[in-house]
Amino acid sequence: MAQAKINKVRISAISCTVPANTVDNNNYEWITPDERNFLIKNTGIHFRRVAEKAICTSDMCTDAAERLFSDLNILKEDVDILVFVSQSPDYLVPATSMTIQDRLQLPKTTAAFDVNLGCSGYVYGLFMLASMLSSGNLKKGLLLAGDRATDSQNYKDKTSYPIFGDAGSATLIEFSGNENDVLFFDLNSDGSRSKAIHIPDGGTRNPFDENSEEEVEFEKGVIRSRRNLHMDGMGVFNFSIDEPPKSMLAVATLAGVDVPDHDYLILHQANKLINETIRRKLKVDVNKCPSTLNEFGNTSSASIPLTIVRHCEKNKIVNGKMLLSGFGVGLSWASCSLEMKNVNVTTIAEL
Amino acid sequence: MTENDFYLSIEREIGEIDPGTLKADMAFNEIPNWSSMHFLIIIALCDIEYGVKVTGEDFKKCKTLGDLYAVVKAKR
Q1: What is the tally of structural domains in chain B?
Q2: How far B64 CA sits from the closest chain A CA (Å)?
């Protein structure tokens, strides 16, 4: 069972960057105006940021990291480890984290690697870095999480195209040495449901071939090729309102703080119907559960830091007990209970 | 949970439907502006209000709202 209590580590800063290009779901002409209104009402997603082809996930994450360094006067030579969590790397080979190490001019003594996770990726990334920093051997770690999730969407798939937005994030995590800086984790996976969210072609199992771009109609308004994201909406919905709440309850028990007693519940921004169902099941006050769906849509592994930053950027500081939960592609889900103490946030930037 | 309460709760969650519109003999696609999103709204409702998990398999077995009511009643 992957549950952990990790101490002597704290999050010290978070920043996010999104593409400037904004898409309004009211202009999604693949479906009727009535369908668009119904979609916006129930998914909660009105606007999305969609990266131009020239902007990769690494560009957004690098920008977020640069501002984190400059705004907070953090020395780059102090960074010991960089982890890039994404499913939209620059290249298949090499890993993107090394190119980011170079672009950020981090020292060559920095450990760097990529992690292939989506919606659960931010919490998994926190877990990895917290685990590696807790011993005190490494002092500062940079978690870069994000995706150009719009890349794999088909305009003619009404169940998926209007849901996703692009974003990148940077989070600085530090060894504090303080026993009272504690993060609690609960992590899970279920590969038996891997087809619930998948892109069939492009890996070594099914390399791209002459059929990969062929479009197939799955149902009315749902047309995809084998290079597009395939999502089983009902399967993902049932998973999302079932397994992640159990994980949140488990991590809350581990932390000794009831779910509704956290100051904030920060959910992966899947869609409003999923997130509201989870919140209502867990009996959390709506004011404790901020959302960025209306403005940014589902931004994969960037959605948790993006929501924290958007909610707290006016004060530039985050404090309070937080319950974070990421869930989705894999299927994979993870929750974290922690206390934010004077965490710096920088205003969301556009690229 | 009476059968009528069940249909009223679906009408409330979907919104934009006049109360009393939904009936036991109504097929899902006869619900005004029916889409796959409506399945999700009904799944969420059954989970939160009735503590019942309705799956894709359940929906496949149901032709009408009355069939769905029977499934939810049996699972409670």
Answers
A1: 1
A2: 18
- Can you tell me the ipTM of this complex? 0.90
Q: What is the 3-state secondary structure (H, E, C) of A328-341?
A: ECCCEEEEEEEEEE
A279: which 2 tokens? 């919140």
Residues of B in contact with A42 (CB under 8 A): 37, 40-41
CATH class of A1-351: alpha beta
Q: What is the pLDDT of residues A74-106, one digit of tens each?
A: 899 999 999 999 999 999 999 999 999 999 999
Q: Which residues contact A55 (CB under 8 A, 6 or more apart)?
A: A19, A148, A166, A351
Residue of A35, A234, A281 with shortest CB distance to B40: A234
Please give the pLDDT value at position A72: 85
Give the domain CATH number at B28: 1.10.1200.10
Name the minimum distance, in Å, from the CA of A241 to any CA of chain B.
Answer: 8
What's the rounded Cα separation, in Å, for the pair B33 and A165?
A: 26
The neighbour count for residue B31, using CB atoms within 10 Å, is 18
* Average pLDDT over every residue of B35-42: 90
Tell me how far CA of residue A33 lies from CA of A25, A38, A40, B37, in angstroms: 10, 9, 11, 15
- Give the pLDDT confidence score for residue A2 in this predicted structure: 97
Tokens 């590969």 — which residue?
A191
pLDDT of residue A315: 84
Average pLDDT over residues A124-131: 98
Question: Is A238's CB within 8 Å of B39's CB?
Answer: no
